Amino acid sequence: MLNRFQWTGVLAVFSALILACFMACVAGGIAWAIYLLPLSGVFMSVIYPTINSKGISCLPKSEHGAAAGVILFFTCVSAVLAPLAMGAISDRMGGPGYGFVLATGFAAVLFIGLTLNWMFNPTIRVFRQVDETQYSFCHQSRSNE
User: Fold this and answer.
1) Per-residue confidence in pLDDT tens, the chain, 145 aa
2) Other C-beta atoms lying within 10 Å of the C-beta of residue 143
3) Measuring CA to CA, which residue among 37, 35, 34 is closest to residue 45?
4) C-alpha–C-alpha distance, residues 17 and 42, integer Å
5) Residue 134 burial (10 A CB sphere; 0-12, 13-18, 19+)
6) Whole-angstrom distance, CA of residue 27 vs CA of residue 30
7) C-beta separation of 56 from 68 below 8 A
8) Which of 19, 58, 84, 131 is most open to solvent, judged by the fewest CB atoms within 10 Å of its CB?
9) What share of the chain is helix, strand, coil (3-state, %, to 5)?
């Protein structure tokens, strides 16, 4: 799919689908969440590696390991703190629906950020420069074929 469509658009659309899943969980409760949360994971499975790959690719090859470490660190922190916050909110407010509301807010922030990324494409210049300087040998071998 990412070979056929612009990656920024795919991420924006998939984040909208994640947001829709979470909004439906808020509306439909736990009975809907049983089906919609795994479905949201299907869309997340495209977003997560693409963001990692693009984040790493913004840097010179010599920095890829460090970038991957930083991204992984913050991913791990988020994977701990977001469910903890959802549980704390749910416990404090008296029901799991409040955790879904918080998760829906997080999904909305993701959607807004990825939509702005699609609209303004702030990394295009960086990717073009890295493509020309670090991966020019790939383009030469393709043109020789």
Assistant:
1) 889 999 999 999 999 999 999 999 999 988 999 999 999 999 999 999 999 999 998 888 899 999 999 999 999 999 999 999 999 999 999 998 899 999 999 999 999 999 999 999 998 888 888 878 876 665 555 554 4
2) 7
3) 37
4) 10
5) middle
6) 9
7) yes
8) 84
9) 90, 0, 10
Residue 121 in tokens: 């494409």
Amino acid code (one letter) for 84: L
The reported pLDDT for the residue numbered 144 is 47
Q: Which two tokens stand for residue 61?
A: 């090859």
C-alpha radius of gyration, the chain, whole number: 18
Cα-based angle 83, 84, 89 (whole degrees, multiple of 5): 95
Residue 129, both tokens = 């420069």
> Is there a contact between 98 and 26 (Cβ–Cβ < 8 Å)?
no
Chain-centroid distance, C-alpha 130: 22
